[in-house]
Fold this sequence. Notes:
By secondary structure, this protein is α/β, with parallel strands linked by helices.
Amino acid sequence: MPIINHRLVxxxxxxxxxxxxxxxASDAPVPPLADGELLTETLYISIDxxxxxxxxxxxxxxxxxxxxxxxxxxGVARVLDSRSKDFATGDIVQGRVNWQxxxxxxxxxxxxxxxxxxxxxxxxxxLGTSALTAYFGLRDVGSLKPNDRVLVSGAxxxxxxxxxxxxxxxxxxxxxxxxxxxxxxxxxxxxxxxxVIDYRAEPDLTAAIARACPDGVDLYFxxxxxPTLDAALANLRIxxxxxLCGRISQTVAAEPHxxxxxxxxxxxxxxxxxxxxxxxNARYPEARAWLGMHLRAGRLIQRLHVVDGLDRAPEALGMxxxxxxxxxxxxxxxx
Length: 335
Ligand SMILES: NC(=O)c1ccc[n+]([C@@H]2O[C@H](COP(=O)([O-])OP(=O)(O)OC[C@H]3O[C@@H](n4cnc5c(N)ncnc54)[C@H](OP(=O)(O)O)[C@@H]3O)[C@@H](O)[C@H]2O)c1
């Protein structure tokens, strides 16, 4: 019996929040393997805000996904069959699995994961791309220093919860911004942040940041952009740094939010810089050594939000833009 690969292809480009109507299922038998290829079974698919830009009409930092093509995604998979000398049946690999149950990967593009020390969930969570993004965004872009007063938006999400914890581990005072009481309780009671702001409950976010950061902000790690960035700009200290990680509040906004407080950058001799984590590829081992050290010591956690069923991947993608994910969002194709 041939193995059937169940996949979701892009049917239509979304205008706003992506959902099931933009994708369709397509099943096909897995083709015979060529030399150097692996047949795998997907264990987890990472669901990322950037995926919206990969399927939109506008420009993206990577080529957009073509209509009719399998949706692009990174993830973790188990090797079922190998025609590469570097991989054996049963190995767990990380790679471009896309939205499909049985990807055929090129061995040269898959990374074998060490399961002697870490779990599969560690590799997609505290050692995964979200964690690497937080690490390089804080250190290289944000020039993180001990005792910095750090503000993190989207703080309960995949990247944000790692950024908040890394800054705490480096001896900073950390304030997190998130939407809703449950996410704020997680930040306060589980991650032990110094203060939290529920932006959905605050009529004046600038004033709320001023209350939570009475001495101002040395480093703002921005996951959301828009009005939150504006409010953070109004609370900078002299010499502040802003690491522009993402701007999810603007991705599906009908009109871009006009930033009013850019003038604060000159008055505060501050700098604002964006980055893409893939540019730090050569230094992932360094980041994973640091993250792994803290993970093994029990000082680092990452809350995963698992959605079961490949067919729910489009719904999961939409959850990011509605704030419905509680933690790093992944899809498990087969529970
Ligand atoms: N630069 C890079 O290389 C890189 C790499 C990975 C990710 N990123 C960026 O990092 C950010 C976080 O990504 P993630 O994967 O960790 O996602 P995430 O934070 O786990 O999920 C997205 C969260 O964004 C918040 N959000 C959605 N709409 C919002 C709005 N209008 N205003 C304020 N917050 C809103 C929601 O949290 P609340 O419930 O708290 O609102 C939602 O849960 C994204 O902007 C992403 O594009 C950048």
